[in-house]
């Protein structure tokens, strides 16, 4: 195994879930929300905690962070076949490369802020495949051949890391509120070489200085904490129902992969703040009223910031058509499918021709009335 000599190699302990009946590996089954044996079909319930999902003060985050992963290389040892596999830098759950056994890195082995909650997969692999086929068939502009001849890569269930943020905001603002009023203006115009007097209605704006305050509480602002997924696609499969969060248990990850966050907590907060400030701007303009607003200045303070580190379920894959790869994702809770697909040039041209034809007929119809 060829490794960078500058990297420290760490043996990483993992959780595995042997079947009590046959000793085979058990994985999480979304259909029954239980562990299922891959060999004998034995099922085992996952103990759930009843206490409330916790949120934490962002000022105390340093006390929860056990350090960065840095340049360390971590190795998982598979008791099933004896093989040792390099664990990807940001992986939390992984499969043995040689025998396929599922390994979930133990909490004490993962530096950083630990996830305390997740939404378990609600949709299994076969259902996800059917949802993809239905989605692809519904893509009107996709060539007919892609719906039949595409080659689907392995469909992988991945728990994607997210941050959620809560904050109680207080803003003060100053601005000029504009109210429209109208005056009648007399003008001389020329038509066919002759002058005539006409009256025209002109809009003007009456400006008024205003100031005030605006308060709003923000709850569970969701920020993707992964740099390794297509941001546009994963945003398109949202939302997730955060009321379905369960306390983190490694059993939920068995049979799936999981990723450690690559967007740090403070980076995520800066993203959340952009959404907050955009929303406050809109809210203040609505509060000011009038017809238009100018010279708006807003000063916002955050009276407490709280966060959660959570994992959300996503099925990920890609398919190949004419040597080009198209990626897609499926929300593992709701089944929403989004991704990219090829576009038929012929269908696009026919659509344009039809639209132009409708416009031409409309012009002819109204011209002859």
Describe the protein.
By secondary structure, the chain is an alpha+beta fold. Helix content is 20%, strand content 41%. It contains 6 helices and 19 strands. The protein has helices at 61-64, 125-137, 146-149, 231-236, 265-288, 345-367, and strands spanning 9-12, 14-15, 26-29, 34-37, 43-44, 56-57, 73-77, 84-87, 91-95, 102-105, 117-118, 151-152, 156-191, 194-224, 246-247, 257-259, 292-321, 324-331, 337-339. Strands 2, 6, 9, 10, 11, 12, 13, 14, 15, 16, 17, 18 and 19 form a 13-stranded mixed β-sheet that branches. Strand 13 (156-191) and strand 14 form a beta hairpin.
Large-scale geometry = flat
The termini sit apart by 82 Å
Low-confidence stretches: 1-9, 67-73
Rg is 29 Å
Structural class: alpha+beta
Helical content stands at 10-25%
Strand content: 35-45%
Q: What is the ordering of alpha helices and beta strands?
A: EEEEEEHEEEEEHHEEEHEEHEEEH
Count of alpha and pi helical runs: 6
């Amino acid at each position: 195994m060829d490794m960078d000599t500058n990297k420290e190699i760490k043996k990483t302990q993992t959780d595995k879930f042997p079947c009590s009946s046959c000793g085979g590996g058990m994985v999480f089954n979304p259909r029954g929300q239980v562990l299922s044996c891959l060999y004998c079909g034995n099922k085992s319930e996952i103990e759930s905690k009843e206490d409330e999902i916790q949120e934490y003060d962002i000022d105390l985050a340093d006390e929860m962070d056990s350090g960065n992963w840095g340049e360390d290389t971590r190795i998982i040892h598979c008791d099933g076949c004896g093989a040792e596999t390099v664990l990807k830098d940001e992986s939390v759950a992984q499969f043995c490369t040689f025998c396929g056994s599922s390994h979930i890195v133990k909490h004490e082995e993962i530096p950083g802020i630990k996830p305390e909650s997740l939404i378990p997969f609600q949709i299994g692999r076969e259902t996800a495949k059917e949802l993809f086929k239905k989605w692809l068939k519904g893509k009107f502009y996709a060539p007919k051949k892609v719906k039949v001849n595409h080659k689907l890569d392995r469909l992988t269930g991945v728990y994607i890391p997210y941050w959620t943020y809560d904050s109680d905001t207080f803003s003060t603002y100053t601005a000029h509120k504009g109210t429209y009023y109208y005056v009648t203006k007399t003008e001389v115009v020329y038509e066919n070489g002759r002058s005539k007097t006409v009256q025209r209605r002109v809009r003007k704006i009456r400006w008024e200085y205003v100031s005030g305050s605006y308060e709003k509480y923000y709850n569970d602002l969701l920020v993707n904490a992964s740099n390794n997924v297509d941001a546009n696609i994963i945003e398109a499969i949202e939302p997730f129902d955060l009321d379905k969060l369960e306390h983190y248990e490694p059993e939920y990850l068995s049979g799936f992969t999981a990723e450690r966050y690559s967007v740090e907590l403070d980076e995520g907060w800066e993203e959340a703040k952009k959404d907050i400030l955009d929303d406050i701007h809109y809210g203040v303009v609505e509060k000011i009223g009038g017809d238009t607003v100018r010279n708006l200045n807003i000063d916002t303070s955050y009276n407490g910031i709280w966060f959660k580190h959570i994992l959300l379920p996503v099925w990920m894959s890609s398919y190949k058509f004419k040597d080009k790869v198209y990626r897609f994702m499926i929300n593992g809770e709701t089944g929403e499918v989004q991704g990219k697909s090829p576009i038929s040039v012929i269908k696009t041209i026919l659509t344009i021709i039809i639209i132009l034809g409708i416009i031409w007929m409309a012009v002819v119809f109204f011209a002859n009335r």
